[in-house]
Amino acid sequence: MRLANVLNLGVKELRSLLRDPLLMVLIVYAFTLAVHASATATPETLNRAAIAVVDEDRSQLSRRIVDALYPPYFLPPVLIDQTEMDMRMDAGIDTFALDIPPGFQRDVLAGRVPTIQLNVDATRTSQAFTGAGYIQAIVTSEIGEFTARHLIDAAPRVDLALRARFNPELDRGWFTAVMSIIDNVTMLSIILTGTALIREREHGTIEHLLVMPVTALEIMLGKVLSMGTVVLLASGLSLVFVVRGWLSVPIEGSVALFLAGAALHLFAATSLGITLATIAGSMPQFGMLLMLIIVPLQLLSGGATPRESMPDFVQTFMLAAPNTHFVMLAQAILYRGAGFGVVWPQFLALAAIGTVLFLFSLNRFRRSLQ
């Protein structure tokens, strides 16, 4: 193997990528607008939900409950009559309708257990499940504070102090912004290497390479190194300028250490892209194979849900996937500020998995050339 051949082949791949406007747009979008959208466009927490209140009690306690339903979780509550409640919910005006019965404050102070009716438009699933819990917690809190001022026995004897580490405000955007970069690194590394090989096969340029004094190893290294460099550079710029700059998400750990782990992950993921390209006969087949591979990898790697909540056999099986270890080291470095002494097992696992995938893909690539 000659390094000059690898370098020239890598430059050729970069030139081919620059001549493909769709892939260039995909790379720019994936590491800019897609990261911003995942952090801000679909928040898991409740945001500006429409709520109406039927206040039949008109007491101090009922006014406290209405005043506690404030933005950004809810829009300003609309006071309506009971006759309007069903009509407004049928028309989709309100997501929640809270009905406070008459004599509610009197029954609470008397020690009774009155009932408040909460109507929820469950067709708005993103807000219905979360919002019902928010409203229940708000009503319970306001009743507790109100009765504590009137009933001496209602005062709590234990005060629970909660401290959230690494994300004190429990802002989902801090998590999803970084996870979007991690997912895009895996996805684009497979797409770019796979499409580079299939594009040459469809255009007939792979035959031109075979008559040149280059080996299969040099051809494959040229694709892996060039596409990996593009994704690594894009992910580093996105982490610094989009996540830390645009979204103002604090990065606790070393960006250089994260990029070193990303380079090992790219070594494995780009090799996987070559393997898929040798299996697929055309670009549509490659796209279908990509969907079968990338979705389970991203869902079961621990980025969408914690690995501890998965069955034991799934946790064990996914240890063979490179992005499982990449998610573990990325979260440890970027969220918790871990150093190399903490994440070295993930580095070692990525190096081992990447070597196995590279040798396997090289063998398949040589067979496809024959």
Describe this structure in words.
This protein is mainly alpha-helical. The protein folds into 2 domains: 3-42 and 170-369, no CATH class; 51-154, abc type-2 transporter like domain (abc type-2 transporter like fold), CATH 3.40.1710. Helix content is 66%, strand content 4%. It is built from 15 helices and 4 strands. It has helices at 3-18, 21-30, 33-40, 60-67, 82-90, 104-109, 125-150, 172-203, 205-210, 216-246, 255-279, 283-300, 312-317, 322-336, 340-369, and strands at residues 51-55, 78-79, 96-100, 117-120. The protein has a 4-stranded mixed β-sheet, sandwiched between helices. It is elongated, with a radius of gyration of 28 Å.
Provide a compact summary of the structure.
Helices cover 66% and strands 4% of the residues. It has 370 residues and is mainly α. α4 (60-67) links the parallel β1 and β2.
Number of helices: 15
Record field, number of beta strands: 4
Structural class: mainly alpha
Number of domains: 2
Give start-end ranges of low-pLDDT stretches. none
* Rg result: 28 Å
Can you give keywords for this protein?
single chain, 370 residues, mainly alpha, abc type-2 transporter like fold, 4-stranded mixed β-sheet
SSE layout and pairings?
Blueprint (H helix, E strand, L loop, with lengths): L2 H16 L2 H10 L2 H8 L10 E5 L4 H8 L10 E2 L2 H9 L5 E5 L3 H6 L7 E4 L4 H26 L21 H32 L1 H6 L5 H31 L8 H25 L3 H18 L11 H6 L4 H15 L3 H30 L1
Parallel strand pairs: 1-2, 1-3
Antiparallel strand pairs: 3-4
Helix pairs in contact: 1-10, 3-8, 8-10, 8-11, 8-12, 8-14, 10-11, 11-14, 11-15, 14-15
